[in-house]
Design a protein that fits this description.
Chain lengths: 791, 185, 352
């Protein structure tokens, strides 16, 4: 780098590829001195005017603010504050159209100036060299300075780079036609700019500082040369006028012959580029304590009576700038924020000036004719000759039109700086840059989509795995081999208990809740009292007893000779297992006052399940699909249980006592407010009934329909068909009754005054569910009857 | 006559030699490429919504590999149909069901006032984008939601809305139609 | 107030497509004038015929394709194709030759490949080759320079010849082309080639009246005129220097090497450069942007290869002039050349 540095400081310049020479058109605006505008009627300050995050708001609506007062506070990384450009009152903080090609609204602070222009307290640091680097960077940060050349990169981040900077380049090139803001700033304030550069040099300690100015600005060159005449290692470099030599990458190439690596930043090659306007802002912030509140804006275009540069307060609406310069709009008027090559059109003149606005261009039709119609590309490669990044624009255009995104990336679409030189020279007037912008946006969106879909796929796979795992576990619970683990023995014991219970229940069909409770209590006691190391002898005895029981049971079953012994077994086992599982879970929780009540409830539920099972078992004799029935029964039982639980919970707002489930007719040992119980019970009844009806109606191979379906699917005699129709009618009627019951259930829910709003809501919700279910049941019943239309 | 014999021999030997070379090259320089199902799956948008009739994107990918139609994926839009058609070498037919040009991006939103905590939607979501538990509040993780619509039906109180994703400056895209451009093709 | 929205950039250099095509046509005028001076005004009649035909055919196809007819015609590319074809064929060729050539060039080679910008082959050259291969007699019936012609022809004669195969006085084209001794006179390239194949040396052959000191009589001035037009195009930045310089450079190199090794049978540098369609090809035909390579490095390769092929076919091939074949052959290679000669983008590779 050293010999290169030597060559650079000797004044050598290198050529950059491509580039065009559009007519300069700066003389309209650069002959007049910078004008100070009167205060606009209001200022619209976007909270974020840079690349990064917005700061936290420090102010509220209707607050009075002083000039230079901080309105936001930086918090996250890359957040830069904004300051009040003048004293006044905040009239609103709301989303307003932003200074962006999309004009999408972004949060803005609207200030009404009070005309007094009172500064807040300023803290100047004329002896900044005595400050630490961190303090100095903080001053830059809190002064709200971000890049004013057009990108809006937070300056404090560049100023605090950890990489070694060899060449500091101050960009005064201003290559775009019409814009002369930097030109007049350099002519008027060259001293301040140089002092601002000194601050940055103090922070970065570069070996060489170059101020690059295009050679069509002789006055600015002279002014800057005079200002830095006595400073070592700071030189003014006049570069040949060509668009776009003022682009950061191109400027580095011209001044140092080095290229910024793709995807990298200039600091990677030891170079830092800053705009002259930013330097002025740094000087104002450090030496005078003034935050960034205004900037020079070129207001130009033949539709204006007077074209000149102005000091515009940040937040000034474009309308104010234009009317101050005598704007007479034409039909099909365009107002461009930026220059003619890279600016964007505004949808309205009520867009504010932000930190990156350097020009407002309001051209007449004669000055900038509307583009002609796009023609076919003739592959003349005038665009490739003009491209400063040595891309192949016509290839990019072919691929962008056919949406070949992979090819676009291979041809380095993302290295395009969107300077517009290619579209400028295209004989067929193809809007090349527009195609690239659209393609870039598409590719970025695709990349985001790709990431999202990867995530979605991962989550889906994970979920599938989880479900399979749970299913495996469920299956394994069934056929877990007998191992002498305490968990195993526990559950087996419970199963046996449950079997015994169920058998007894079936035998005498009585509510032996107490017995169950006793059994449960026994189990619980055992569980509570046990230690980690069980007494094996007890367990062994138990096991033997269990084996005996199981064998007896099996013999009994064999003798009873039901049509589907296996099915019954499975069914019972499934139900019992479900019960046992629930019990184990409950038993594993800590005991408290609720426990016995919960157990009571559970017992009641178990009784209910038993009853339901019995009913289903009776019907199961005709079933064609026993396994399905069993599962259904289990599911129905589980659902009923859950519903009962919920009903109970709904009823026990604040009560520590558990209520009975809906289906159970036995009263609970404890009583609670009548109304609540009634409401909960009624709702639960309705729910369960509706659910059952829905289930019964919705699933074709149910007990009721099994006959009907098989009948209709085969060619049957008219009699059988009639039977099928009858069965369908019965089902319909049942569903209707269930629906009515649900309705009735609603009516039995009187809004009692003791009911809390929560309960009311819950009851209402439950009723709604019931209604929906009933509706669905009715609909399904109707559907089914349609299906089985006897011919 | 002998010439004919010699000629036939020569050509036969040449054919043999080249056949051996080709066979060797086919084995030695074999390029392991993605099985076609993986490639198809990579193109599909992974919303796992089931609108194609298959329970997830992977089963549909397998079905396409076995010859199923490529135009059954509405969330993928026409772009996906085209890519699949290119990959499978079939013609790109328009989307089955006549879908509009750009399927709008939506995410689910649960109106928490009405949620009863039944976990039905949680069970329905193919990517587990709903957080919640029995009798606890359910809510949708917007970043994970693919907008597949599968949670709307199971909800017993119908409290899930599909809300279009708002556009921000970061997601705003340049549109070709916004400027007066006539495309030649 | 409603503001118009557009995409940047908002200024344009205003070198439009029509301008480019018109400038190429203008630059061909010196050459056409030279042709008129030496070989009669038949070329003008062919030119008029060609322009009428291309307009009709292009309009017809555009209408069938549903494209805006006048707007597309306005870009002038069809007229340029017609012009180039008209100056490439013998000036007194029958009228249907040019009509067929235009039809093939416009409809098949240009429009059926997608219109302007979509054709793989140079339309004028593809049309020329079709005619040359299908109608060899008519396509090789070049008139000798006017001063060598035994019978003078007027404009009316030319019209009659083109449309009825006989002049007003009743002469056929064969008769017009024969000299006093009744031997048909061919183009310089053709003459040289025939003589060399009969065993004459180049020096001996070039004593014939159809030759001058350096190259063919009349033809050398036509080529010089096209060179002038080409330089004009270069100065106006309508074409890039890469293709003409590469083509002429390669041709010169090959011709010089050939002359060094076999001066008896090889005519040498000046002859190659100034005879046949060399200059027309270098500046007007090979530089057709649609069918040529698009990268600058690729253009160098493309032009050089055309030069080499022209030399090879002229010296060892079956046709006297080879520009059309060389251009078509290289058109086929353009996608490959483009693929391998992409420029290095800023920030990638070497210097970063």
């Amino acid at each position: 780098m050293d010999s290169l540095l030597a060559r650079i400081s000797r004044g050598q310049l290198w050529p950059s590829p491509g580039g065009v020479h559009p007519p300069v058109n700066k003389s309209q605006s650069n002959s007049l001195p910078i004008h100070i505008l009167p205060l606009p009627p209001r200022l619209v300050l976007p909270v974020k005017q840079h690349i990064g995050a917005q700061g936290h708001l420090l102010v509220n609506v209707h607050e009075q603010v002083l000039k230079g007062q901080a309105l936001t506070k930086p918090h996250a990384n890359w957040s830069v504050p904004v300051h009040a450009p003048t004293s006044g009152r905040i009239i609103d903080i709301t989303p307003m159209p932003s200074a962006h090609p999309s004009a999408l609204p972004e949060l803005s602070i609207i200030i009404e100036p009070d005309g007094e222009d009172r500064w807040c307290e300023l803290v100047p640091h004329p002896n900044y060299r005595e400050l630490t680097a961190e303090r100095l960077v903080d001053i830059l940060h809190f002064a709200g300075i971000s890049g004013m050349g057009g990108a809006g990169f937070p300056t404090y981040i560049k100023a605090s780079t950890k990489q070694q900077i060899d060449v500091l380049i101050i960009n005064g090139a201003e290559c775009e036609p019409y814009i002369s803001a930097d030109d007049v700033l350099m002519q008027a304030h060259s001293e301040e700019i140089v002092r601002g550069i000194e601050v940055l040099r103090h922070l970065l300690q570069p070996k060489l500082t170059l101020i690059a100015i295009e050679d069509d600005k002789p006055k600015a060159i002279a002014a800057m040369e005079q200002a830095c005449a006595n400073i070592d290692d700071m030189q003014v470099r006049a570069i040949p006028t060509k668009y776009p030599s003022g682009g950061e990458k191109q400027l580095i190439q011209i001044l140092t012959s080095k290229e910024v690596p793709a995807g990298g930043i200039p600091a990677d090659i030891g170079v830092l580029v800053q705009n002259v306007g930013t330097m002025y802002a740094i000087q104002q912030a450090v030496e005078l304590g003034k935050p960034l509140i205004e900037r020079v804006v070129t207001v130009t275009g033949d539709t204006l009576a007077e074209q000149r540069n102005v000091w515009a307060l940040l937040g000034t609406e474009v309308k104010h700038l234009l009317t101050q310069q005598g704007f007479t709009p034409e039909p099909m008027q365009r107002v461009i924020m930026g220059g003619p090559m890279m600016g964007f059109t505004l949808p309205t003149v009520r867009i504010p000036v932000v930190k990156t606005t350097n020009c407002i261009l309001a051209p007449s039709e004669a000055e900038m004719p509307m583009p002609g119609e796009e023609r076919a590309c003739i592959r003349c490669s005038a665009c490739a000759d003009a491209c400063p990044a040595s891309l192949l624009p016509q290839q990019l255009q072919w691929f962008a039109k056919t949406k070949e995104y992979k090819k676009l990336e291979e041809h380095q679409l993302f290295d395009c700086i969107e300077c517009g030189a290619c579209a400028y020279v295209c004989p067929s007037e193809i809007p090349l840059v527009q195609y690239y912008r659209v393609a870039k946006a598409e590719i970025r969106e695709q990349q985001i989509e790709q990431i999202k879909s990867e995530r979605a796929k991962e989550r889906f796979e994970a979920r599938k795995e989880r479900l399979e795992r749970e299913q495996e576990e469920r299956r394994n619970r069934h056929k877990r081999p007998r191992r002498s683990t305490e968990q195993d023995s526990q559950s087996k014991e419970k199963v046996a208990e449950a079997l015994a219970r169920v058998k007894r229940k079936q035998a005498d069909k009585s509510d032996d809740k107490d017995k169950v409770a006793a059994a449960i209590a026994r189990a619980k006691a055992k569980k509570a009292g046990e230690q980690l190391e069980p007494d094996n002898s007890d367990v062994a005895q138990e096991r033997a007893a269990r084996k005996e029981q199981a064998r007896l049971y099996k013999e009994q079953k064999q003798q009873s000779g039901t049509s589907e012994p296996d099915a019954k077994d499975d069914k019972k086992a499934a139900v019992a297992a479900a019960i046992a599982r629930a019990k184990a879970k409950k038993a594993a929780q800590a005991e408290d006052a609720d426990a016995p009540a919960q157990d009571d409830k559970k017992a009641a539920v178990a009784a209910a399940i038993a009853r339901a099972k019995a009913k289903k078992a009776a019907q199961a004799k005709d079933a064609d699909a026993p396994a399905q029935d069993d599962k259904k029964a289990a599911v129905a039982a589980a659902i009923a249980r859950a519903k009962a639980k919920k009903a109970a919970k709904a009823a026990e707002a604040g009560d520590t006592q558990a209520e009975t489930s809906g289906d159970v007719t036995t009263p609970a040992p404890e009583q609670s407010p009548e109304d609540k119980k009634k409401a909960a019970v009624a709702a639960a009844i309705a729910r369960a009934k509706a659910k059952k009806a829905a289930q019964a109606a919705a699933e074709p191979p149910t007990e009721q329909y099994a006959d009907a379906d098989t009948a209709s699917s085969e060619a049957q005699s008219p009699e059988e068909k009639k039977k099928a129709a009858v069965a369908a009618a019965i089902a319909r009627a049942k569903a209707k009754k269930a629906a009515k019951a649900a309705e009735a259930g609603d009516d039995t829910n009187p809004p009692a005054p003791e009911q809390s709003p929560e309960d009311k809501k819950k009851a209402a919700v439950a009723a709604a569910i019931a209604r929906a279910k009933a509706k669905k049941a009715a609909r399904d019943a109707a559907n089914n009857s349609d299906d089985e239309d006897p011919s | 006559m002998m010439i004919l014999f010699y000629a036939l021999c020569a050509v036969g030997i040449l054919a043999l030699v080249f056949g051996v070379i080709l066979g060797f090259a086919a084995v030695r320089f074999r390029v392991e490429s993605d099985p076609i199902v993986e490639q198809i799956d990579a193109i599909l948008p992974q919303t796992q919504c089931g609108q194609c009739g298959y329970p997830g994107c992977r089963p549909y990918a397998e079905a396409i590999a076995n010859g199923d139609e490529v135009n059954k994926c509405p969330p993928g839009g026409d772009a996906t149909v085209k890519k699949l058609a290119d990959l499978m070498g079939v013609e790109a037919t328009p989307l089955a069901g006549g879908e509009q040009a750009e399927p709008e991006k939506k995410v689910a939103y649960i109106r928490e006032d009405e949620c009863i905590g039944c976990t039905k939607c949680i069970q329905a979501c193919p990517v587990d984008a709903i957080v919640g538990a029995t009798r606890q509040m359910h809510t949708v993780l917007i970043d994970e939601c693919t907008g597949c619509d599968l949670c709307v039906d199971p909800c017993p109180v119908d409290c899930i809305d599909m809300v279009p994703v708002a556009q921000t400056k970061q997601t705003w895209k340049w549109q070709l139609q916004a400027i007066p451009v006539t495309q030649i093709d | 107030m409603k503001l118009n929205m557009m995409s940047s950039p908002y200024k344009h250099s205003h070198k439009s497509l029509t301008t480019v095509m018109l400038m190429v046509a203008l630059a061909a005028v010196p050459g056409i004038l030279a042709q008129c001076y030496f070989f009669g005004t038949g070329v003008l009649i062919q030119l008029v015929l060609a322009l009428v035909c291309v307009t009709l055919f292009e309009a017809g196809v555009l209408y069938l394709r549903g494209r805006p007819v006048w707007h597309t015609l306005q870009d002038g590319s069809a007229w340029l194709t017609g012009l180039l074809l008209a100056v490439s064929i013998p000036p007194l060729a029958p009228w249907w030759v040019i009509v067929l050539g235009c039809f093939f060039a416009i409809v098949f080679v240009k429009q059926l490949y997608g219109g302007l910008g979509g054709n793989l082959f140079n339309p004028a050259m593809a049309g020329y080759v079709l005619l040359l291969v299908s109608f060899p007699v008519q396509m090789t019936s070049w008139l000798p320079p006017a001063e060598l012609m035994h019978h003078q022809v007027s404009l009316v004669d030319e019209l009659a010849m083109i449309f009825s195969n006989y002049t007003q006085s009743g002469y056929s084209l064969e008769q017009l082309r024969s000299n006093v001794d009744g031997i048909t006179m061919a183009t310089p390239l053709d003459t040289l080639r025939t003589d060399v194949s009969h065993g004459l040396t180049v020096a001996e052959s070039m004593t014939k009246p159809v030759f001058t000191e350096t190259a063919g009589l009349g033809w050398q001035w036509v080529n010089a005129a096209y060179l002038l037009g080409g330089l004009l195009l270069l100065q106006q930045r309508v074409i890039n220097w890469h293709i003409p310089v590469a083509m002429l450079g390669a041709l010169s190199l090959c011709a010089s090497i050939g002359y060094i090794f076999d001066s008896g049978n090889q005519p040498g540098l000046a002859f190659h450069l100034l005879s046949g369609a060399t200059m027309l090809g270098a500046f007007f035909i090979a530089t057709d942007p649609v069918s040529a390579s698009t990268t600058n490095r690729g253009r160098l390769i493309y032009g050089a290869a055309i030069g080499v092929i022209v030399y090879l076919i002229r010296s060892f091939g079956g046709y006297p002039d080879a520009v059309a074949f060389a251009v078509l052959l290289m058109n086929m290679a353009v996608p490959l050349i483009d693929h391998y000669t992409q420029p290095r983008t800023y920030g990638h590779g070497a210097k970063s």
